[in-house]
Design goal:
Oligomer: single chain
Number of helices: 14
Number of strands: 17
Bound molecules: pyridoxal-5'-phosphate
Length: 421
């Protein structure tokens, strides 16, 4: 029995069966590569689902962890430590928002943002304004797995087994301005969007839809809440996806790459929204601990020092251009989209998408599939063109082989005398 077999058997016996893992045991990482138990190197174009922004074994992260773990790992939020205000300053300067609450994960940040919206609407009501408690979320949205998050997540399979979920959520058709206008009213306390939907298939909001959402929310005092958990922190070439649109939200949420692999989430909001929160209303034991904050500061500084926003833009543009060239030769690729290093290639079938992910893994390249037919690429921000070339060559080979096989299969019925003429 290999070590992997032993671990698989133990997990099968001991863990809740939530994940369908790939049969690979990674033991190390270096730059954009993961290394398995046999020493085989994999090009990682997924970065732990959009987390490892600086790749693996980055010296800035290693130094921050080493320094901070010798000094202080945890204090609780009953005391001050050196990291939160320093990190909050960096985040507010880069997002254009005023105040921060630190959580541990994406879904926890999102839960807090929903609570903030309800509390803010309550405050407005106490000041005599007419505003309700309803949320407008979008079709194909994904915001996480806790109750508020699944309630505002579109796919029924994430919500229905756990019903009843949090009431008061209505879904608007994606990028449908008329549907947004029809469903918006003074009953709504917040409009909830991702600037670029991640799990929903790397789908950017249209500028028209985004600005209408901004205008409608402003017209009643409802909050525009933008989930940047997947798109944020530089992945799209800007700190936040909404900055491509020139739209400022009232609240945004960050997580995934925020602390380069150490769990950390954040809610950022305006002074106006922050009026709704007082001591004791919300909190967390671990959120914004000294270790996570020290690493997040190091991540932001490294992104700037190494010019990684620019790299994400340039290498991302190159990646999409190469995928488009590939699409011109392979009909199976129906669409190529995204921003920076948040990239999708939509295929013509779910089976082919699944097969492509498996074939890439055989060639030691990690990608994944979302929304059934969408190949998703969320590589580390340090990706270079040569890595893109390697991935494109592998995709080319896979699609060429698949097309040849499909052609043989469709020719097969004619073999053995069925062909006419
Ligand atoms: C846009 C978005 N929001 C929220 C989440 C939930 O984050 P977490 O898995 O850290 O709870 C995700 C995770 O994929 C996400 O992509």
């Amino acid at each position: 029995m290999t070590k992997l077999d032993q671990i698989r058997a133990a997990e099968d016996r001991l863990l809740l069966s939530t994940y369908e893992r790939n049969p690979i045991l990674f033991v190390r990482g270096e730059g954009v590569h993961l290394i398995d138990e046999n020493g085989d190197r994999y090009l990682d174009l997924l970065s732990g689902i959009g987390v490892n922004a600086l790749g693996y074994s980055h010296p800035a992260i290693e130094a921050a962890i080493a320094r901070q773990c010798r000094a202080l790992i945890h204090t609780s939020n009953l005391f001050y430590h050196e990291g939160q205000a320093e990190l909050a300053l960096r985040l507010t300067e880069r997002t254009g928002l005023d105040r921060v609450f630190f959580a541990n994960t994406g879904t926890e940040a999102w839960e807090g943002a929903l609570k903030l919206a309800r509390a803010h609407a309550g405050l407005l009501r106490s000041e005599g304004k007419n505003i309700g408690t309803k949320f407008l979320a979008l079709e194909q949205s994904f915001h996480g797995r806790t109750f508020g998050s699944v309630s505002t997540t579109y796919k029924a399979k994430y919500r229905e087994p756990f019903g009843p979920v949090v009431p008061g959520v209505e879904f608007v058709r994606f990028n449908d301005v008329a549907d947004l206008r029809a469903k918006f009213s003074s009953e709504v306390c917040a409009i909830l969007v991702e600037s670029i939907q991640g799990e929903g298939g790397i789908r950017p909001l249209s500028p028209e839809f985004f600005s209408e959402a901004r205008a409608l929310a402003s017209s009643t005092g409802a909050l525009l809440i933008v989930d940047e958990i997947q798109a944020g922190m530089g992945r799209t070439g800007k700190w936040c996806g909404y900055q491509h649109y020139g739209i400022q939200p009232d609240v945004t949420t960050l997580a995934k790459p925020l602390a380069g692999g150490i769990p950390l989430g954040a809610i950022l909001c305006t002074e106006e929204a922050a009026r709704a929160i007082h001591a004791g209303m919300h909190g967390t034991t671990f959120g914004g601990g000294p270790l996570a904050c020290a690493v997040a500061i190091a991540v932001i500084d490294a992104i700037e020092k190494e010019d990684l926003l620019q790299n994400a833009t340039e290498v991302g543009d190159y990646f999409r251009a190469q995928l488009r060239t590939l699409a011109s030769r392979h009909d199976a690729i129906k669409d190529v989209r995204g921003k920076g290093l948040m990239i999708a290639a939509e295929l013509d079938s779910a089976d082919l998408a699944k097969l492509t992910v498996a074939e890439m893994l055989k060639r030691r390249i990690v990608i994944n599939c979302t929304s059934d037919t969408v190949l998703r690429f969320l590589p580390p921000f340090i990706l270079k063109r040569e890595h893109v070339d390697h991935a494109i060559a592998a995709l080319d080979e896979i699609f060429t082989e698949h097309a040849a096989q499909a052609a043989t299969q469709s020719a097969a019925p004619f073999v053995g005398g069925h062909a006419r003429g």
